[in-house]
Amino acid sequence: MKSLPVVCELSSEALAQRKATTLTELFSEVQELQPLRSGYRFRFEVSDQLLTNIVEMINKERKCCRFMDFELQIAAAEGPVWLAVSGPAGTRDFLESLLNVKP
User: Fold this and answer.
1) Is the pTM of this model over 0.85?
2) Which strand (E) or helix (H) includes residue 83?
3) 16-25 as b/e, with b when 16 or more CB fall inside 10 Å?
4) What is the pLDDT of residue 1?
């Protein structure tokens, strides 16, 4: 598959709205952050609502940030949830800017 450019297809206004609502709400629940070569891995404490929020966020982001890969790992026995977000070169920098995170 051809590498897609690291670019968000939302307008500036729509991106600002997404950052202020969906992304801020979800990523404020991160318990641990692990840098990956081309992205980040986020740990959350499991809840039904959290799982719903993650799936909704993935569904939205895959449409406007088509370069991103998402991997969701849900541990047994109510263990933690891990979400890995990665992509081509530049994805990690993009995530740092979008989510205001640093390793």
Assistant:
1) yes
2) strand 81-86
3) eebbeeebee
4) 54
